[in-house]
Amino acid sequence: MFATIKEQHKGVDVCINNAGLAHAEALLNGKASGWKNMWDVNVLALCICAREAYQSMKERNVDDGHIININSVCGHQVFPNADGHFYTCTKYAVTALTEGLRQELRVENTHIRATSISPSFVETEFVSRLYRDNSDKAAAVYTDYKSLEAKDLVSAITYVLSAPPHVQIGEILLEGL
After folding, report:
1. Residue 131: active-site member
2. How far apart are CA 50 and CA 140, in angstroms?
3. What family is it from (predicted)?
4. Any domain includes 50
5. DSSP 8-state secondary structure symbol assigned to residue 73
């Protein structure tokens, strides 16, 4: 993917890591294959993309780039839903990784910024995929919680990207009312 971006666009100036995957795999009886899949997508893929984006920026002397990790409110608190505890673990990792990335960027003396945006439920196919075998449970999620729309997340990303060069927005928690 990054080779194609380099070939077609010369490189990456802004990276928005928006991969997110959940399986209904509880800690006490979940499948290790589901846990591994969530870890690979939600944590390792994010790290690989952040690394490759940084390398692209460094190679081209881009000193004002931005890496935005789309996280989750689950990366800040544990909700009482056993199906989501391992997913929550991966999002806590994203919180820690974004802060670690920010610290490493400072050590490198760069002005490249790193931000974590943590939305609550966004009305997408995420929940219907999570509960693909139980459409009633999927529908209840959007009944129980005021969902955000994709455009709300776009607004947060636009806000972060429009911040003055001397401003580091480290974290945005985005919740529906």
Report:
1. no
2. 35
3. Belongs to the short-chain dehydrogenases/reductases (SDR) family.
4. yes
5. G
What letters, b where the CB count within 10 A reaches 16 and e where it falls short, cover 160-171?
Answer: beeeeeeeebeb
Residues 6+ apart with CB under 8 A from 146: 176, 177
Structure tokens at 59: 């190679």
On whether residue 2 sits in a domain, the answer given is no
CATH number for position 52? 3.40.50.720
pLDDT tens, position by position, for the chain (177 residues)?
A: 999 999 999 999 999 999 889 898 899 999 999 999 999 999 999 999 999 999 999 999 999 999 999 999 999 999 887 778 999 999 999 999 999 999 999 999 999 999 999 998 787 666 667 777 777 766 776 676 778 899 999 999 999 999 999 999 999 999 887
> For the chain, how big is the Rg over CA atoms in Å?
17
Q: Cα(70)–Cα(130) distance, rounded to whole angstroms?
A: 18
Residue 74 · residue 91 · CB < 8 Å: yes
86, two tokens: 């391992």
Residue where the block lists tokens 């002397």: 61
Query: Could you tell me the residue range of the domain that residue 133 belongs to?
Result: 13-174
The answer to whether position 5 is within a domain reads no
Question: Catalytic pick from 54, 87, 92, 131?
Answer: 87
Count up the domains in the chain and report the number. 1
Please give the Cα distance from 100 to 114 (Å, whole number): 10
